[in-house]
Give the backbone structure.
Amino acid sequence: MTSRVIVSLRVPCSPIQAFDIFTQEIGDWWADTPTFRFTPRSPGQLAFEPPAGGAPGRLVERLPNGKVFEVGPVRDWRPGERLVVGWRQATFGPDHATEVEVRFEPVGDETRVTVEHRGWDSVPQNHVARHGFPLIRTNQLQGDQWRAGLARLKAQTSTLRWPTPD
């Protein structure tokens, strides 16, 4: 089994609203840290390019110098339910890959957003992306980053409410 980080948080809106804010506003709520930068020129602005016209979609970072770095392809895009995307840093080799799965589950009048980031065990401890940290510390730091991001996502959803039936 691959290593994984799992972080969940409830947000005060519907699953489709949570999915839309997660994907359409990731550049606003993402909590960048120097530990997990995608490129040496990061931070930039994260953005999803949704699947369209047969293309799978992708997550990108738009850098201040105008270049675009592909973080990863979208592997599953089910609005209001599930999102799976590849997650790579520029320094990753062909055998290094992580993946993020996000689930959106209704819980009463809220939505549980669960992020599962897996695959850091494919990146050797001595790799620059791991900063020499043991796997457990890498996962802890990645979990901290996701917790901070989801807290910001929750703040962005705080004014939304489930649609009410007519």
Notes: The longest helix spans residues 135-157.
